[in-house]
Predict the 3D structure of the following.
Amino acid sequence: MDRDLNQHTHWAPPEGFHPVDSQVPGVIVYAPMPEQTDIDRAVSYACPNCGANTGYNVAAGGVACEYCGYVAPVNAERVGRSAQDFEFTLETLAQARQGWGTQRQVLHCDSCGADLSMPAGALTTACAFCASNQVNIISIPQETLRPRFLVPFKIPPEATVPRAKAWLGKGWYHPDALAGNTILRRFYGIYLPFWTFNTRVEAKWQAEVGYQKTERHYNAHQKRWETRTRTVWKWENGRVHLNIEDLLVSGSAPKHLSHRILNQLHPFHLGDLVTYTPDFLAGWQAQAYETTLTDAWEIGKRTIREKAKKACYERIQSNQVRNFSMSADFNDETWCYILLPVYLAAYRYEGQVYQVMINGQTGAVAGNKPVAWWKIWLAIAAILAPGALLVLIGLLLTLLGGVGIIAITFGIILFVIGVIISFSLYQHARKSEAQ
């Protein structure tokens, strides 16, 4: 017995296996190590002709040197929506590669706390998220999962500022100085992390549904037949089947990046997905995910449940519903970690920080910008003035013995319409400034 115990104590796992996280306390689980490929080995981005640093060039579609014109094509396969997904198992997590696959440094912002992966040797003096110059280079272990696919940049860097200036110049209630040359001078091309999820959902619903029923009855007091309508409530139930494909959930934390603005850049066309290779990141910034797979899946499930709830309501043949309940079963859940291209710039205006983003694939622009509130208040005064003036004229006519009730009535109607329009204008302006 002692000999068997001694052999168990010195047991070693087979070659090529390593320990992974276990959900059972006191039990060690071993899984095969991921195979090392060329992507795991050191990659150099020095130009073989002149020795200068190279980077991925959007126009050339490869790693290029801006000094001597050297271009090397990127060895990546276009996979589109047929990109292979992972299942939610410990084995797939353990076998997933980690890090970026090349030597990179991390830029940390002391102001907003954001971390950005940058090419080794790159220099910058400002944070792309908050425009702060309180930045420094730090070293962190590459313990995050490696992205499997990405959508390359298609919009060249030189096209970003003109697009942003055109967008900043739109809107009469914004400061006139926004479209000037001093607000935005540079965009940072950043590969942002996203999780994609696929699943099949079966939703079962139950609710009381109200139907209008018209009845005829005899009014003894009026001595005539009349019709009346009443609501008849019936319990109903049903099922809805949904196939969810490529549901995107951002891996960036909302405290650094406005998800409201980011969502306005959608859609991204995932038909352009290619296999990940560090070549695409040469000369570009990238962000590792801050929202973990588990948290992202919880966000995704909430979104999917809302989609299922909407689909259930569409099956109900009435707009009168009460006591609605639904259960949703998820099957064949899979996930994938990808990078999507976004240009990001932050600027300061009168002490406030604003973000502008450009979809690096489609060129769509979104962001927040300050409001010249004096223009808003002047416009609201102009909208409310006609109604208020008519009411005042009507009151004067009434006091002088004239018939001013018509003017008062029209004045009140105009004033109420003006209040509705003014409130909508105010809300729109506030939304423009919101993060």
